[in-house]
UniProtKB/TrEMBL annotation:
Composition bias, Basic and acidic residues: 1-14
InterPro entries: P-loop_NTPase, Small_GTPase
Stretches for region Disordered: 1-20
Pfam families (alphabetical): Roc
UniProt organism field: Vitis rotundifolia (Muscadine grape)
MF terms (GO), sorted A to Z: GTP binding; GTPase activity
Keywords linked to the UniProt accession: GTP-binding, Nucleotide-binding
Similarity field: Belongs to the small GTPase superfamily.
Name by which UniProt lists this protein: Small GTPase LIP1
Amino acid sequence: MFWRERDRENKEHNGGGPPCGQVRVLVVGDSGVGKTSLVHLLVKGSSIAQPPQTVGCTVGVKHTAYGNSGSSSNSIKGDSERDFFIELWDVSGHDRYKECRSLFYSQINGVIFVHDLSQRRTKASLQKWAAEIAATGTFSAPLGSGGPCGLPVPFIVIGNKTDIAAKEGTRGSSGNLVDVARQWVEKQGLLPSSEELPLTESFPSSGGILAAAKEARVDKEAVMKFFHLETIFFR
């Protein structure tokens, strides 16, 4: 059904002419970090009160135009403006879908990694997500192995739930339960202070964006720059 609807939209935007470009971007992260709310915000431009639980994977589609539009500094020499459909593949982070997630890792143009700013473990988990995608995915126009775990496509990291993190901060809590646990274990003499629990934030933070999807807040300009980057490599 999704593919038929997308083909119909292609024809409507092009007056029956050549099909639009199609760019596939994975949206991944642990269950509960707000991926579905974020995709809804990026596609619809508004928040969603009660996002449904993602079963396997859902796809949101955003239309954008990019290319040579006169004096635009982002235009590509010799290339006219072209319509693109950005397919945002919202992959469930629940463990029950772990064995079948590779079915959605096909012909990837880019990846959006999402974590919950009030739960540090979700940032640490992004390394696992990158390794899983790099090992089992196939990629359109791969760039090489410059990304985390050898990921060969552009990516961005979005820290969601700034609203919740801010509220916890006003109560004197950073929301970093891992640090609190480590300090407690050290006080009990069960762990030398020189050692750390195995949960660390080693994932690249370059290109990080802050968001509060439930409050319809995200740096849309930064996200659009990322989408336009995808269309460049797609060509």
